[in-house]
Specification:
about 35% helix; alpha/beta; single chain; about 260 residues; elongated; three-stranded mixed sheet
Amino acid sequence: MKIGKIIKTTLITILATSMAAYIVYAVFFLSMPDENEKCRTVELIVNQETQSVFIDEKDVETMLKDANLYPKGMLMKDVDTERIETTIKKNEFILSAECYKATEGVVCISVTQRTPILYVLPDGREGFFLDTKGIAIPNSRGYMSDFVVVSGDVDETFASKNLVDIGMFLRTDAFWSKQIEQIYLTRNDEGERVVEIVPRVGDQIVYLGTLDNFQKKLRNLRIFYDKAMGTVGWNKYKRINLEYDNQIICTKRNKSKK
């Protein structure tokens, strides 16, 4: 009886192993494309994490056609997925690209656009977009979109190291993303870069000082807006200084000006 059970158990194990091996074989080989058939369909998707669209499916298709790499109509064996990925990633607005062959003559291409968060316009130099990774994207095609503009004494190195946090903050904060129109950078007497903000509502300059603790400074300003501006009016002050902790210094306009 014991021998019979051993044999039965052994046969079950062999059968299970064989079935598993067959499933692996079937999944692997049956899912492989036929290299001798033509590409009939290109499934092309551009993933966007922003409402600002700099690259779309038509742009990628044109890019590949110009490089004689668009796969539709090619034999699958002639479709060079690595070259397709490399060509697409040459575009400054592309974060990543993946290309692979599927069955039934399908080539899949998935592209992810970079996510710009600020437009930086240095004094005397060409402007560029700054993305969520701190990468400067040249505005070689003259794109215009509704981004907060950072101008003044700023360059790519400073922007990449110091502006991503405030850019991400503005991207996710519904109030400040609509209230801040422009950020201007200059130098104080110590040579530090300091920040002035031009709001969309209110005819005044908001002085932050350095970017240190900018969220706390803006939080204090929001409290001031909620408590005071509705009473005194948005145009009473020409300058609001948030440089110091827990202190807001307001400079009134000349009485002759309304």
